[in-house]
Amino acid sequence: MKEHPLPETLKKQLARKADPTIHDNDISGTISLSPDLKVNRSPAAGLFIFARPEGVETGPPLAVKRHGVFEFPFDFEIGQLNTMIEGTQFEGTMTLMARLDQDGNRKSSPGDVEGTVKVTAGQKGVQLVLDNPIQIEAYNIKGTVDVSEALKSKIPENGTLFIFARSEGVRRGPPLAVQRIPDLKLPYEFTLGPQDIMMPGTAFEGPMVLAARIDVDGDARAGPGDLEGFVGANPGDRNVKLLLNHLTGS
């Protein structure tokens, strides 16, 4: 009977698991759900555990683990075997974050519940409480719309301001979210979020491009002489500056 060699990736996985020191820095403990929260758990819910080096809030986590079958309180462990990038060391001080994710995917959304705790590699008996429900407010993009100095003389007296959000790279079809502001006063402070979604059930997630336009005739379609501007943004961004700095059709 012919033997088939093991794939290199599988060989590496088996070698890692056979390393007698692989679990030396594992962190273990218990995850519990705050008794103050009334949470209806979805049948599709998953429990995610993320580890990030202390002070690092962006980019891929150092390690991640997902559980599809769990009850609270839940005994967990996470360590070197769960690192995202091969060769990365699970060591040092880090932030451990756990999330009860209602739809079972790794992106947080309203209805999920999170909790965090500071830990050190190798720490045992960690107590991590899920006590922070994700609200729609956390996804809102907030900022200011204004017009460049060169175009301030072009602002129409009865213009209507439209603010649109489109997923990055999407230029056609209906926008992801939209607002219409008929009584315009500049600079205008805006809040755009999941409540402004055009198609129910669509996720308000980024990255995206925000567009603002002062429309002369009050119609959402661009016309000659409208003032327009664009800026990149992500859900949860604050202090976004959206400057209208060109005329459509020019």
Sheet of most strands: 5 strands, antiparallel
Beta-strand content estimate: 35-45%
Mean pLDDT: 89
- Calculate Rg over CA atoms: 24 Å
Oligomeric state of this protein: single chain
Q: So what's the overall shape?
A: elongated
Low-pLDDT stretches: none
Q: Please provide the ordered H/E string of secondary-structure elements.
A: HEEEEEEEEEEEEEEEE
CATH names the topology of the largest domain as Immunoglobulin-like
- The CATH class label of the largest domain is Mainly Beta
Second CATH tier, the architecture of the largest domain? Sandwich
Q: What is the CA-CA span between the terminal residues?
A: 74 Å
Tell me roughly what share of residues is in helical segments.
Answer: under 10%
Number of strands: 16
- Contiguous helical run count: 1
Strand order of the largest sheet: 3-2-5-6-8
Secondary structure class reads mainly beta
Task: Explain briefly what this protein structure is.
The chain is mainly β and 250 residues long. It has one helix spanning 8-18; strands at 27-33, 46-53, 63-67, 74-78, 93-101, 113-120, 126-130, 132-133, 141-147, 160-167, 177-181, 188-192, 208-215, 227-233, 240-244, 246-247.
